[in-house]
Amino acid sequence: MAPFAVFQTFLSILMFLRIYQSEALAKPLPLTPESLKVSANSTHQCLHLQWTVRNIPYHQELKMVFQIQISRIKTSNVIRVENYNTTVKWKQVLHWSWESDLPLECATHFVRMKSLVDDANFSELNFWSNWSSWKEVNVQESLEQDTLLMFPKDKLVEEGSNVTICYISRNTQNNISCRLEENQIHGEQLDPHVFAFNLNNVSFIRKHGTTIFCEGPPKQKKGIVLFVSKVLDEPKDFSCETRDFKILSCTWDPGMDTALGFSKQPSQSYTLFESFSGEKKLCTHKNRCDWQITQDSQEFYNFTLTAANYLRKRSVNILFDLTHRGETGVVAAHIGH
Ligand SMILES: *[C@@H]1O[C@H](CO)[C@@H](O)[C@H](O)[C@H]1NC(C)=O
Ligand SMILES: *[C@@H]1O[C@H](CO)[C@@H](O)[C@H](O)[C@H]1NC(C)=O
Ligand SMILES: *[C@@H]1O[C@H](CO)[C@@H](O)[C@H](O)[C@H]1NC(C)=O
Ligand SMILES: *[C@@H]1O[C@H](CO)[C@@H](O)[C@H](O)[C@H]1NC(C)=O
Ligand SMILES: *[C@@H]1O[C@H](CO)[C@@H](O)[C@H](O)[C@H]1NC(C)=O
Ligand SMILES: *[C@@H]1O[C@H](CO)[C@@H](O)[C@H](O)[C@H]1NC(C)=O
Ligand SMILES: *[C@@H]1O[C@H](CO)[C@@H](O)[C@H](O)[C@H]1NC(C)=O
Ligand SMILES: *[C@@H]1O[C@H](CO)[C@@H](O)[C@H](O)[C@H]1NC(C)=O
């Protein structure tokens, strides 16, 4: 190393140490999370957090742990504590999301966090910061006297899921009863105005959804529809064959159609991807797809057939050698996992 470079390195280490020592001796650098912003996506029942950490040394990165607390209704009612471990760079904006079981309209949520430096290079900073202040998240709709609200509205879930619904009633005196289809369901009181119901392992009843009604005197009645989708099947018996070496005809058994009424979910789509050519095709039929064999006589084919609906994707794969024709002149390939 040239003397000048050595001197420069020495100088920068010296400056680095000075900054650290002077601040460390006076008081430990507060690497506290700050500018915490919380936004809510009520459709996805998700809270999105965004924050920064002040005082990360210039162009450095260090390992940190963020402990995040989520409370419901009041700050003292902590319902979730999560640790998020990550590496934080200078000037980085951090993100973290959380999905709530309870629809966000049902109750106010509060979020706060603290941080810890968990990095061998910065062992002097290995202590918990103070908590940030609580951020309140409120997506409640305004509620007039004697009205009833229910959430979530028109939610799409897969069969077997657990779903939490709630009703909010301004008038706490009312005796409100709720039914799923014809069966009465029993909830848990979250606060004087809010009842929540856990529906475990929901089943598919019909394409047009499952209705849940709540009613109470006087003339209060509200309903929501829960769209329960069948679980998407993996395509079965996927195979391709050709008789003329121009078109590969691929077929499969699609299994259950997962379309739901009111355009809540269309039938699942099927796409064919061939990895050697990198080509992809959206199939127009639900149980077959024709594939043009290219002029430059591709020998190996590696197809991935993917079924997809709004909730899930499922793929199967076949790999075959087109030149290995059978006695009948038909090339056929079957699923080989
Ligand atoms: C919620 O998220 C989805 C996709 O993740 C997005 O399409 C939608 O616009 C978001 N809604 C709100 C209110 O931000
Ligand atoms: C931390 O130390 C290790 C080895 O001592 C080194 O490889 C690494 O680059 C250092 N990280 C930072 C951010 O300085
Ligand atoms: C995150 O860091 C904490 C503190 O070092 C540790 O106890 C925990 O196991 C880590 N979690 C993960 C998922 O790495
Ligand atoms: C936490 O806050 C108190 C009072 O505001 C302050 O004296 C203390 O230094 C802070 N601790 C850390 C680790 O930042
Ligand atoms: C649904 O709830 C039951 C009982 O609380 C639990 O055992 C199961 O794991 C949950 N299922 C899902 C998909 O979260
Ligand atoms: C509420 O109504 C149900 C029937 O809908 C009845 O069985 C129950 O006794 C009522 N409870 C109160 C406190 O009025
Ligand atoms: C969920 O319900 C189905 C029938 O609808 C049942 O076959 C299955 O065992 C149930 N699963 C659980 C975890 O209760
Ligand atoms: C076939 O394609 C799949 C999906 O693209 C890929 O994961 C797999 O490695 C491929 N196999 C070969 C032998 O190229």
Automatic annotation (TrEMBL):
Residues 29-137 form the Leukemia inhibitory factor receptor D2 domain. Residues 1-26 form the signal peptide. It comes from the Eukaryota. Keywords: Receptor, Signal. Residues 151-228 form the Leukemia inhibitory factor receptor-like Ig-like domain. InterPro entries: FN3_sf (IPR036116), Ig-like_fold (IPR013783), LIF-R-like_Ig-like (IPR048497), LIFR_D2 (IPR040817). Pfam families: LIF-R_Ig-like (PF21177), LIFR_D2 (PF17971), LIFR_D4 (PF25552). This is Oncostatin-M-specific receptor subunit beta. The lineage of its organism: Eukaryota, Metazoa, Chordata, Craniata, Vertebrata. The gene is OSMR.
